[in-house]
Design brief:
The structure is a single chain. It is built from 6 helices and no strands. It has one domain. The model has no long low-confidence stretch (mean pLDDT 85). It starts with a helix and ends in a 13-residue tail after the last helix. The protein is mainly alpha-helical.
Amino acid sequence: MKRIFIWLAFPLAGALLFWGADALVMTYRGTWSAAVWISAKSIALPVACGTAFWHMVKLLSCQSRLMTAAMAMATGIWVSGPFYFLLFHLSLGERHMSMGEMLFHIALFPLATLTVALFSGSIGGLLITTALLCILGTGWLGIPGKTPRTK
């Protein structure tokens, strides 16, 4: 039961947090220079996802399934990339996207997510977040909610 809950909560949180924060930065990109908003995505998105992961593991008592939770969150981010592109593309309204194009983007989600990240300037944030979640999943930086034992 815990595993099912992890595979529901963590991907949803990862997708909403990563792409939601990306969309928030994209709304203000006209007021900032490109270097500023790309740097903000490369720093803020991994920090936000890592912090949310740490707190969710502690809150939901998932310390025994740390790597499962980390991979679930990373999977949510990667799988939801094409959906973010579809929403972003449809909100611009420049040209209509055919149903075949939509299905093509959804079917090729790893490649489509990389394309979306390149298009939106969040490729650095995507790669750093994925690496950070892998590191957090191993427990090298500590396990949330567990205090280190002292001798």
